[in-house]
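Exam revision sheet. Question 4 asks you to relate a sequence to its structure. Input first:
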Amino acid sequence: MAMSKGQVKIRRMAEADLERIKAIDRALVGPDRVLSWPLRVEAHWWVYRPMLNFVAEVDGEVVGFLLGDIRGAEYGTDVSGWIDMMGVAPDHQGKGIGERLVEAFCQACQDNGVTARVVVREDDERLIGFWTSVDFHRGNLVSYER
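Answer key, structure tokens:
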């Protein structure tokens, strides 16, 4: 069941949120996250702050996050807003919090005149379902490997 907009506060991320964001990520993926992750979230913060990084709060507690930025013409695309990482604490999923985070990101992209983008694995049906539900559609980027 979705929470009312009054119960969820979406705000720009602050440096003090970093530890809580990492705790949410550990709750989602466990301790097996790539070793670079503890540094990556801080690196993202220092490089892009407070660019397009958002957190969701319920009763003053950070329960979700979205890390994104605007960057140049990668992969032959126009300058775009890219969602790099997103997570909602397991006990707060299914309440519309992820959707609210994406809305904040997309509004910031619109304010900056850029398209919002995200990359997911083509076999991740859960994420594809989520992104489709928040009005994202398949783009024209294709990955090749050897």
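Marking note for examiners. The first strand starts at residue 8 and ends at 12.
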